[in-house]
Amino acid sequence: MVHKSSLNVQGTGGGGTVTNVSVVTSYGFSGNVANPTTTPAITILYSGYIHTQNTPSVVWSVSHNLNRYVSVTVVDSAKNPIYADIVYNDLNNCTITLSAATSGFVYCN
Hints:
Strand content: over 45%
Shape: elongated
Helix content: under 10%
Structural class: mainly beta
């Protein structure tokens, strides 16, 4: 999956040295500069999980293993939002219940 996001790079060390990086996205990305430099190697991390439900079903079991209660967005295979009942089983698992058997994706952030 490719998600569009905006990357903001600020040079605050004088002489064009990049010392701070931030990423603006709703998909759980974060970024940092390991060593401030004029030619930085920037690491971008995704701290979310995307569940793919290939087989149409009314109940989807999602194991995201993010060790937190996540925000959940459910979409069908055409990326249209789906209204669903969401039960948080524990910090790493949730159950999605739909009104009809559907395939699609769950974005956990």
